[in-house]
Fold:
Amino acid sequence: MSFLDQYEAIVRLSAFAGIFLLMAVLEIAFPRKKRVVPKGMRWFTNISLVVVNTLALRLVMPILAVGMADYAAGRGWGLLAWVELPVWAEIIIAFVLLDMMIYAQHVAFHKVPILWRFHKVHHADRDLDVTSGARFHPVEAVLSMAYKLLCVVLVGPAAFAVFLFEVILNASSMFHHANIRLPQNVDRLVRWGIVTPDMHRVHHSVRVAETNSNYSFFLTLWDRLFGTYVAQPRDGHRDMVLGLNEYQTEKPANLGWAMVVPFLPEERPTAKEKGDSS
Ligand SMILES: [Zn+2]
Structure:
């Protein structure tokens, strides 16, 4: 039995629970921004989506990313199957390529109207915290996994590289959505490499120009390379408004709303909100 067969589930669950708890405690000790919505309702909705998405993936997808890497390796599929590299080099290349592909996916979810319908469930959250990192509509979760399977087939990484990538990406999502205050000099240093909470908060601003920036999920390289990097929110972290202009109500905290909103007619921001949003 391989390491992955034996320990995959337990490592994933422990990493998720460990980082979640750590972020939740740090949010209480060093909060960055005052909440505008009661925490209980939001947490119920966001955590329910985690459960629904886990079930949806198991029901809908015949195979998940790590399994696909094994399957692809058995057939010699993907870029990395054609070259002979040491394992560590293969892991680094796979990681960087997959991270770039996830960046591209995130841009697509903003630019393609039908995809945005689902991704806006994530953006409608009016506070940001560790639970926002897992707040995705089930359709987005399934489409993301289907896309990840395609990426795995194209890149051809070792199953262990995909496992590592998924665990780190998950941890990164909880970290950069967390409502925590890092010392300014630490933030500045860390964001040369990876996405920090202050950097990602800009992406959740109601200002459209800021929503359409800072798409990176782990390495900040992609935003810098593709010109989508915005260092700080125009209104400052304390005063900036989070979420979407058209949903500054109690609705986004409601689980039923989050499930059905992609299928409802789109609500447009009012003229005044539009004026505020650039
Ligand atoms: Zn986004």
